[in-house]
Recover the amino acids of this structure.
């Protein structure tokens, strides 16, 4: 490629090049120093990274890993940004099963994944290997990424016929043939590079420095913000959004936590030992410490109030109100059953 001679020069990202947040880079410097010390003191090997400052990380390999997956994608650090985002090729993000939609993600130094994620170190219980890079893909294959990434348009301009078709409300599948998409470049040299854009910007870092989803904090605040925005956008059906949130998130979450409560383990507060069943004497048989729950009522009911608000505010059908009512009845049967009444001998005398 061309040499970088101007700060305003456009530099196209290669498929596995990434630009990471400065906060992450500063953390990576500490991780690299730890790994070098680990190599020397534990493995009796020479240090590998020898990193002193952030700029020393340029060129080093990282592994990207999306939450709830076990396959990491290899990448190369080429720069840094003051924003809390990771700039990377859409194919690289998609290979991790991410959609570039603001979700949180993970980056690890490549050597860290090799030294720190042996199966011998991971928990043995169900879910213990979740979010661990058990596999690493060294080369991104555009044919193996998610279909959404194939639908990214990479044209410099749209033809006038495209705009005419929008007036005609033509089917998107037919109109897509008019646009230069990644899908149309598969199995060619152009599938990796030469991607264009339609709207130039003076500085890509002028956007939000952090996801609003992360700033809002409580889930009820995030829900209110999402629905307020949906009500302002004419093309969005706010009632449908509320229904989707209720059925795909809240009700599933409440039911899942309710099921988890009835099948939960117990934990000793002192030694942290876990038990499948509550010890008969109510104390830890190892240290005598108090035994407590691992799933609590608050975790089950945390979305109930928000779910009721959705049903009432958007006038959702009685079906959803009844589902919430049944869930509440089940919760009450667990936590608010009839308390045993103290009886005397006189109660048994007729």
């Amino acid at each position: 490629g061309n040499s970088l001679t101007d700060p305003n020069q456009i530099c196209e990202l290669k498929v596995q090049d990434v630009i990471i947040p400065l906060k992450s880079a500063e953390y990576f410097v500490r991780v690299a120093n730890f790994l070098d010390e680990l190599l020397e003191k534990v493995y009796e090997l020479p240090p590998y990274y020898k990193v002193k400052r952030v700029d020393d990380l340029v060129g080093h390999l990282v592994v990207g890993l999306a939450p709830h997956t076990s396959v990491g994608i290899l990448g190369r650090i080429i720069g840094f940004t003051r924003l809390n985002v990771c700039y990377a090729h859409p194919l690289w993000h998609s290979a991790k099963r991410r959609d570039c939609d603001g979700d949180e993600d993970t980056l690890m130094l490549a050597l860290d994944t090799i030294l720190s994620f042996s199966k011998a170190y991971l928990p043995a219980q169900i879910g213990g290997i979740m979010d661990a890079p058990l596999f690493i893909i060294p080369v991104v294959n555009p044919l193996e990424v998610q279909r959404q990434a194939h639908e990214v348009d990479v044209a410099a301009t749209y033809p006038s016929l495209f705009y005419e078709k929008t007036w005609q409300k033509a089917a998107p599948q037919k109109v897509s043939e008019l646009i230069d998409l990644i899908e149309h470049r598969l199995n060619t040299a152009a599938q990796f590079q030469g991607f264009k854009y339609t709207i130039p910007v003076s500085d890509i870092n002028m956007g939000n420095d952090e996801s609003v989803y992360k700033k809002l904090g409580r889930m009820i605040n995030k829900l209110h913000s999402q629905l307020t925005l949906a009500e302002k956008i004419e093309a969005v059906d706010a009632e449908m959004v509320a229904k989707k949130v209720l059925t795909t998130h809240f009700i599933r979450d409440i039911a899942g936590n309710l099921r988890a409560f009835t099948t939960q383990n117990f934990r000793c507060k002192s030694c942290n030992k876990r038990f499948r069943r509550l010890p008969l004497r109510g104390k830890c048989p190892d240290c005598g410490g108090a035994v407590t729950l691992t799933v609590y009522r608050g975790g089950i009911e945390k979305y109930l109030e928000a779910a009721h608000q959705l049903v009432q505010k958007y006038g959702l059908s009685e079906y959803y109100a009844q589902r919430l009512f049944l869930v509440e009845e089940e919760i009450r049967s667990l936590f608010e059953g009839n308390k045993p009444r103290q009886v005397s001998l006189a109660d048994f005398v007729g």
About this structure: The chain has two domains: 17-191, 219-335.
